[in-house]
Amino acid sequence: MKLSDFDYSLDPSLIAQIPAAQRDRCRLLVLSRETGKIQHRQFYELIEYLEPGDLLILNDTQVFAARLYARKERTGGSLQLLLIRPIENGIWEALISGSYSIGQRILFKDESFGEIVGEKEKGQVYVRFYVGSDFSKWIDRVGKTPLPPYIKRNHTNGQQEEQEENDRLAYQTVYAAVPGSVAAPTAGLHFTQSLLDQIRAKGIEIYTLTLHVGPGTFKSIRVSEIEQHTMEAEPVRIPFSTAMAIQKAKESRKRVVAVGTTAVRALESAALASAGLGAMDGLTDLFIVPGYRFKVIDALITNFHLPRSTLLMLVSALTGREQLLTVYQEAIQERYRFYSFGDAMFIL
């Protein structure tokens, strides 16, 4: 399929810059795949569409303060890092913005420093950190929330610290538990603890898995035919308890409802790795496009995604490309808010 098949036009004013004032008070577009019927609701009304015995699967990954601002030791020129994953002995793989050279020493705001010790590819480097303290505490203090580039921040009038504090809370699910992501599983941002409690009280079971979101999930596709694109591998862990609950649900013909595309990719990866679905602790580079036959999930809660993105393609595989683009056009007409801090869809 052509990359251009997954394009659409969006008024920039519909790109959400801040989350809803209350997480579960964003809008919810409910789509029946079978009938094509669309309903416009509020997210807290999601519970009306869930049935006792359904299984709700959450990705409990936690976003860490992966964005770092630095300056070159010799020239004072600015650099920006987005940490991806630890390698060994204080070395991290990172995306880098700005000119750099191997062996270059870079300074951070607290005067700790790092050294660029290698290059994986242009713009993707290995950095050794010399921070003089526990790295997790250091990054939490010095790093910034890795908001996507389409979310703009005006750091004027001394509001940087207040805005960063707000973003750290907003760009994290209420059930985040395992640090490791450079981006939030945004479909989960709409849940409150109260809503989760109400869902459990109705007889819906809730289980978790972990997929640490890396920059590859959002990497631009640079080929004209999407089948030629390769996803970067991301760590996945599906506990035995989650796998067993899903097997039981499938045997009982109960629905498995995935919260977010990351949960979908984790579950479908596990199903492909074994007969049925078992526990998993490894990596996935699964790229789901139209034509894929889903083995685990029956319904999906998701946000509205960027044009030409792998996330849009995954959702298209579930709904059909034409149906999804028709739904997106209605969402645009109804002025839904798009992307990470935007509104949600429930696809039945």
What order do the helices and strands come in, and which of them pair?
Layout: E1 27-31, E2 38-42, E3 55-59, E4 61-63, E5 67-72, E6 78-88, E7 91-97, E8 105-107, E9 113-121, E10 124-130, H1 135-142, H2 160-170, E11 178-181, H3 193-201, E12 205-211, E13 234-238, H4 240-251, E14 256-259, H5 261-273, E15 280-284, E16 299-303, H6 310-319, H7 321-333, E17 344-347
Parallel strand pairs: 1-17, 3-12, 3-14, 4-11, 14-16
Antiparallel strand pairs: 1-2, 5-6, 5-8, 6-7, 7-10, 8-9, 9-10, 12-13, 13-15, 16-17
Helix pairs in contact: 6-7
Identify the notable features of this structure and list them briefly.
7 helices, Thrombin, subunit H, six-stranded antiparallel barrel, single chain, 348 residues, 22% helix, alpha/beta, QueA-like
Structure write-up:
- By secondary structure, this protein is of the alpha/beta class.
- It has 2 domains: 239 residues, 3-Layer(aba) Sandwich (QueA-like), CATH 3.40.1780.10; 77 residues, QueA-like (Thrombin, subunit H), CATH 2.40.10.240.
- The chain is 22% helix and 27% strand.
- It contains 7 helices and 17 strands.
- It has a 9-stranded mixed β-sheet with strand order 2-1-17-16-14-3-12-13-15. Strands 5-6-7-10-9-8 form a 6-stranded antiparallel beta barrel.
- Strand 8 and strand 9 form a beta hairpin.
